[in-house]
Amino acid sequence: MPMQVTSDVLSVRTLIANVVLIGEPGARDWVLVDAGIPYSGAMILRAVRDRFGTELRPRAILLTHGHFDHVGALKQLAARWDVPVYAHERELPHLTGKTAYAPPDPTVGGGLMARLSPLYPRKAIDLGARVRCLPPGGEVPCLPDWRWIHTPGHTDGHVAFFRERDRVLIAGDAFTNVKQESALAVLTQRPEIHGPPMYFTTDWGAAAHSVRRLQALKPAAAVTGHGVPLKGEALARGLLVLAQNVERMAVPDHGMYVHPAES
Ligand SMILES: [Zn+2]
Ligand SMILES: [Zn+2]
1 falls in which pLDDT band (50, 70, 90)? Predict the structure, then answer.
């Protein structure tokens, strides 16, 4: 079920991961953020038709990062629409066939989603010349009101997107609105603010810093890569508690990416 965040921001869930359509209903200009789990192309196209009245192609596709559950339909959609894809330059090796992501750590977080994580694809996809670097100054192509913010930790080139005017944040996996390690929580989508999905996070020091950086923006609404969008007090309170206690709440106390200096 798509969830309206503001009149022009719609979050669409592809089973376990969200994509975002930015554009007023019926608008001719719109942008897609992230591209869902594998085989979610038909579902995303349906949401596009419902939203814009026809299968209109976006001006661009923006990526928070390149994990498999955020780029599942990307090659198919980008080719079908013939549009550019923008990501942080440090994410590009994972999007141009060069470098696989580091292996996930199934021992952290404790849930089924974490234990299954070695099965998740982590090979680089290859978008060739279609993928471009986000401009260095923080401006977002095709979205003049938005800026991108480098939020590394979950991946090196992870970014969030923020609009100052109404303080809407698209956080990707820098934090989540569901306990993504747990299959039960993912199934019920019970809202609860958590750090980045643990099994795929490889730099906990940077991840903690990124959570604090996003909290400092005081977002009024946040769409995350996983979980339902949150707004207002529930978001402000949950994100503040997470930012103040990120080492205790989000960083696992053991695991292949936890080093003694950070634990
Ligand atoms: Zn991720
Ligand atoms: Zn994710």
Answer: confident
Q: Which residues pair with 163 in a beta bridge?
A: 146, 168
pTM (two decimals): 0.96
**How many CA atoms, within 13 angstroms, populate the side-chain half-sphere of residue 199?**
24
- Distance from the alpha carbon of residue 261 to the mean position of ligand 2, in angstroms: 26
User: For 236, what's the count of Cα atoms within 13 Å in the CB-facing half-sphere?
Assistant: 5
Contact 162, 145 (CB under 8 A): no
pLDDT tens-digit profile of 28-45?
999 999 999 999 999 999
Looking at residue 259, what is its pLDDT? 77
Instruction: In whole angstroms, give the CA distance from residue 139 to residue 196.
Output: 24
pLDDT value of residue 260: 60
Ligand 1 centroid – CA 173 distance (Å): 5
For residue 259, the CA-to-ligand 2 centroid distance in Å is 23
Quick one: which ligand is closest to 155's CA?
1
In angstroms, the Cα distances linking 2 to 12, 43, 98, 123, 231 are 4, 11, 34, 29, 16
Helix-helix angle 74-81:41-52, to 10 degrees: 50
- Rounded to the nearest angstrom, the distance between the alpha carbon of 69 and the centre of ligand 2 is 6
Distance of CA 16 from the midpoint of ligand 1 (Å): 11
CA-CA distance, 9 to 251, in Å (whole number)? Answer: 30
Instruction: Determine the distance separating the centroid of ligand 2 and the alpha carbon of 236, expressed in angstroms.
Output: 22
- Element containing residue 205 per DSSP (H, E): helix 204-216
- Say how many Å lie between the CA of residue 197 and the centre of ligand 1: 7
In this structure, what is the dihedral angle of CA atoms 99, 161, 23, 228, given to the nearest 10 degrees? 90
199 CA to middle of ligand 1, Å? Answer: 9
